[in-house]
Amino acid sequence: MALARSWSIGLHGVDGDLVEIEADVGPGLPGLSLVGLPDAALAEARDRVRAAVVNSGRDWPGRKITLALSPATLPKQGSSYDVALACGVLAADGKVRPSALEGVVLLGELALDGRIRQVRGVLPCVVAARRAGIRRIVVPEDCLEEASLVEDVELLGAGHLADVLAWLDGEGRLSRPPTRPTPPVRPVHEDLGEVVGQERARRAAEIAAAGGHHLLFVGPPGSGKTMIARRLVGLLPDLSVPEAMEVAAVRSLAGALPPDGDLAVTPPFVAPHHGVSAAALVGGGSGLARPGAVSLAHRGVLFLDEVFEFGPHLLDSLRTPMEEGEVRLARKDGVVRYPARFQLVMAANPCPCAPPRPTDCTCRPDAVRRYRNRLSGPMLDRTDLQVELDPITTLDRGPDEQEEDTATVRARVLAARERARRRWADTGWRSNAEVPGPALRRLRPVEPGVTLELDNLLRAGLLTARALDRCLRVAWTVCDLRGGDRPDADDVHDALELKHQGAATGAQR
């Protein structure tokens, strides 16, 4: 009886665990037994691995083979274990030196002819291997650029099982990552200067970008709601390297990484259609849940156009991620956590018929109420800025009436973000929107009387405690944009107007 070990990585959300694969080849009826909570795709590996080994010019052991994946209580899913399983079997059979597998993580799916196919989630797998102390990792050749985003590891790429076996025998070489070019230039986004008029909406977008606040636009068709929302990403600061790695890890799991393998520093912009399913929006699927749009928008913008067309249950499913910055999905194989610190931007028509001019509306009042009630009170409470847009009445602009372009507004946004970063540097929070209300009042109390307007509304029951905290966060952002040290009563008044302007207009209909 012979025993050998190889290693791979088991993913659980964006986190990974080192999986030890023990291969035992001993007497008994020929066959392969796979234990350790494999899913259906992994259970089928016995057929893929056997055919790949034979078609790579190696003999398959004609004895009883037992493969155990540890930790045994960790559910294993996917086909990324194939290469490690094949090498473990051949090492246990004496066809590969067992010592050559020490300190090596093997990733990849095997085709029947021995080709190594790419798999999803290579980037978080490499990160998990490095965290576990393993610095030599073999990945599919097509995933080499993606894996090379991780530093301080020795990466090797293989296109065929025969190449891996020759390398383990010391008779061959595997591919190395290509030399990574200079960091990519920030892409050119649609310019905010192209938006005609809509000063309130433009200012709300600037405040939202400066503080990371959630935003709702309500207005007639053609008033510029979607135009402004799509230009919001151009105002946001570039992602730091750790933030970009978080975004890339989620995209890797979803199979949405760009083919060039570059680390994207631009915040993501995700705009699902209103017919999206709950699983596609917040994540889901059988077994262990997959990331959804809220996680793909992590550190970026989640844009819901025609938000009143979304089902109420879909919108309410966003409430917890908006508060906590992550989504927890429970399935039969366990609970996974995906990051979901997105900035929610919503756009909607004021009524179902949506005429170009509000005065031409033919909807009954109860129809308008039902339409708007799809966005529940708790969701509106979590929306920091609510702005009503007016119809565009002219597209002619004189030479002195040109709107500010993205570069000009972005400079103010970055300056405000830097003030907030310095203020919260010792706490780990990156923007005003991330600061919990109790901490905001305790660590940075405002001058007496500044929040009098908010306090009166709270006592009258016209403002919730959550809404008060959100107004205070927006007031800090308004203060940062004007370069002040602490919010004054005018900043608080501006924040309150932006919080309720859209909702109040809708209530008057």
UniProtKB/TrEMBL annotation:
Cross-referenced InterPro entries: AAA+_ATPase, CHLI-like, Mg_chelat-rel, Mg_chelat-rel_C, Mg_chelatse_chII-like_cat_dom, P-loop_NTPase, Ribosomal_Su5_D2-typ_SF, Ribsml_uS5_D2-typ_fold_subgr
SMART domains: AAA
Residue ranges of every copy of the AAA+ ATPase domain listed in the record: 211-393
Coiled coil (residue ranges): none
CDD domains: AAA
Listed GO MF terms: ATP binding
Family recorded in the similarity comment: Belongs to the Mg-chelatase subunits D/I family. ComM subfamily.
Protein name from the UniProt record: Magnesium chelatase family protein
The organism of origin for this protein: Actinomycetospora corticicola
